[in-house]
User: Which sequence fits this backbone?
């Protein structure tokens, strides 16, 4: 496991953003890069590699990677539904959305469909409380969720996947 030369240059640029001796500050963006590069999740091997690269102890990487929900610690599906479950979203039906996704896809939070297509996750407030209930999908937010919207999103993902196969 190793970043390409191009990605290693990117790591160097990230590290340079921080003062000398403060390279630990580069950990979050480098973990994002590692997650993108190595299959969408952070294996122990990947975290050890990042630790080695940034001259940190592996435990320093593990404690950060396990704290933030944006890092995946096991393999995830092609599409990830990160449903917000904090107060405002919960009061507006996020539990029903999670339940509906389970009914539709047969997965509970933390699980991935057998075909590797969808992963369901519950996360804390994503700062879009006014659009509750909502979820994050990659770089996009899906807001004011209803069962019908969930149906449409699942269909959209399937069509998107089919068009790229
Ligand atoms: S509570 Fe869901 S986005 Fe804030």
Assistant:
């Amino acid at each position: 496991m190793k970043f390409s030369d191009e990605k290693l240059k990117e790591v160097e640029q990230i590290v340079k953003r921080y003062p000398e001796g403060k390279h630990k500050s580069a950990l979050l963006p480098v973990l994002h890069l590692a997650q993108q590069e190595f299959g969408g999740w952070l294996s122990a091997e990947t975290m050890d590699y990042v630790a080695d690269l940034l001259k940190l102890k592996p435990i320093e990487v593990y404690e950060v990677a396990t704290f933030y929900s944006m890092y995946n610690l096991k393999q995830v599906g092609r599409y990830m539904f990160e449903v917000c479950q904090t107060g405002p979203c919960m009061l507006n039906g996020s539990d029903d959305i999670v339940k509906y996704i389970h009914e539709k896809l047969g997965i509970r939070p933390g699980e991935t469909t057998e075909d590797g297509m969808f992963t369901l996750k519950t996360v804390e407030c994503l700062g879009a409380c006014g659009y509750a209930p909502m979820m994050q999908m990659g770089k996009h937010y899906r807001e004011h969720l209803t069962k019908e919207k969930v149906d449409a999103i699942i269909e959209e993902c399937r069509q998107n996947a089919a068009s790229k196969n």
User: Anything to note?
Assistant: The beta strands are 79-84, 118-123, 135-137, 140-142.
